[in-house]
Amino acid sequence: MLWILWPCALFGYYGLTTWFGSLLLAKGFSMIKSIGFIVMITSGGIPGFISATWLIDKIGRKPVTITYLTLTAVAAYFYGQSATYNTLLFFGFMLNFFQYGMWSSVYAYTPELYPTRIRGTGVGMSNSIGRIGALLGPYIMGTMMVAYGSGSVFTLAASVFAVAACAILILGPETRGKTLEEINK
After folding, report:
1. CA–CA gap between residue 106 and residue 160 (Å, rounded)
2. Measuring CA to CA, which residue among 146, 168, 179, 149 is closest to residue 73?
3. What are the residues whose beta carbons fall under 8 Å from the beta carbon of 67, sequence distance 6 or more?
4. How do residues 100-147 score in pLDDT, each as one tens digit?
5. pLDDT tens column, 44-100
6. Which of 15-24, 93-102, 154-163 shows the lowest mean pLDDT across its residues?
7. What sign does the dihedral 136-74-164-66 (CA atoms) show?
8. Would you list the domain boundaries of the chain?
9. What is the pLDDT of residue 19?
10. Cβ neighbours around 111 below 10 Å, total
11. Which long-range contacts link 109-112 to residues 24+ away (Cβ below 8 Å)?
């Protein structure tokens, strides 16, 4: 499950963040306005981190990770379809809010799924496998942006985040309230 989650999450994350400036230019923003816009929407990550950090202990890692991945997918899709400054700002902020919140829960969830004796190796391998997505995301999304337009990039990102959420929903155990020994049985 983690070897699906990590490549999908990193594919979407790096695919979008690498091209945010170019995607905004494609929507008609100037370079200066694009940089300021990116600063504003990236600020959504701070409350996203905080909210997920609080929620993972209240309702569990699995539901928070699924929810934040799903809402990242929704925000990515609508961000890509947005045409006005206000909708771009709103969905961009929400995209960063849920995307960064998703990382809080993924980083808390991943180590709990490996037995203590191989936890470091397991987390390292999950992250390493994920780097395949990090390498492919910017390349594939850049190619798609040129061939099919910026909307296609966000639709692809939304789809990949949704695949990650489905992988957790189907394959992921819940770890809330369990000892590491119980989880690893």
Report:
1. 15
2. 168
3. none
4. 999 999 999 999 999 888 999 999 999 999 999 999 999 999 999 889
5. 999 999 999 999 989 999 999 999 999 999 999 999 888 888 898 899 999 999 999
6. 15-24
7. positive
8. 2-183
9. 80
10. 15
11. 109/56, 109/61, 109/62, 109/65, 109/172, 109/175, 110/2, 110/6, 112/61, 112/175, 112/180, 112/183
- Residue 132 has a pLDDT of 95
One-letter amino acid at 9 equals A
Residue 14: CB partners within 8 Å, gap ≥ 6? 133, 134, 137, 138
Exposed/middle/buried for residue 97 (C-beta within 10 Å: 0-12, 13-18, 19+) = buried
As given in the structure block, the two tokens for residue 38 are 């990116």
**pTM of the shown model:** 0.91
The CATH fold of domain 2-183: Growth Hormone; Chain: A; (1.20.1250)
Surface-to-core class of residue 127, CB atoms within 10 Å of its CB (0-12 exposed, 13-18 middle, 19+ buried)? middle
